[in-house]
């Protein structure tokens, strides 16, 4: 007769396998790029002033914003067209070479919505290392997630943004610290609906004074995962 104690591990394994697992309970990887190919081949569009660097958070390579000689030069964005209308989380690592004192500094994460007038400014590292976003308002000023600096120059920081499409809100974290949430609206004030796709854009550089050294961002280990309705992260 077989010892029932010997069968116990098999019975437990069978019971676990018998539990129905819903696919909606598993985060779905939508996009990942650590830049280890040394190229931008995983990006649908490349801005004109980005390059590959060996100054990486992990592995051999990362992406670096190449700040040119123009003041407030536009176009330093790389883009990934996700073509996805569900809720998702964007996370990765970044660092800046300095923190400026004018308007924008280092990194920004944007969303592009087809048919909308302007971009969704989800996260910006602004003067002194504070975290802001830029939704429509009469003055055009940044709104703040952090009134005090949370970013330090020449150090790697982790960022995360959750786009909750069922509630049309976004939530932001830096170094796993929850900073707050805001409605999903473009810079011109247009509402972003549950059926609108949000393409991922990541930019770098800043507004700086003539003759000053511009701020430049390095990004690495970018990951985008789908999240299911009702899922919340700590602090949200």
List the helices and strands in order. Answer: HEEEEEEEEEEEEEEE
| Global mean pLDDT | 80
Q: How many β-strand runs?
A: 15
Radius of gyration of CA atoms, rounded to a whole number: 21 Å
Distance between the termini: 55 Å
Estimated share of beta-strand residues: 35-45%
Label the overall shape: globular
The proportion of residues forming helix, as a percent range, comes to under 10%
Total of helices = 1
Major sheet: 8 strands, antiparallel
- pLDDT below 50 for ≥5 consecutive residues: which ranges? 8-24
SS content category? mainly beta
What does this entry look like structurally?
The structure is a single chain. The protein has 1 helix and 15 strands; from the N terminus they run αβββββββββββββββ. The strands form 2 sheets. Strands 1, 3, 4, 6, 11, 12, 13 and 15 form an 8-stranded antiparallel sheet that branches. Strand 12 and strand 13 (177-183) form a beta hairpin. It has one helix at 4-18; strands at residues 29-33, 45-46, 50-53, 62-65, 77-80, 88-96, 104-112, 120-126, 130-133, 143-144, 157-164, 169-174, 177-183, 199-204, 217-226. With 236 residues, it is mainly beta. It comes from Methanoculleus frigidifontis.
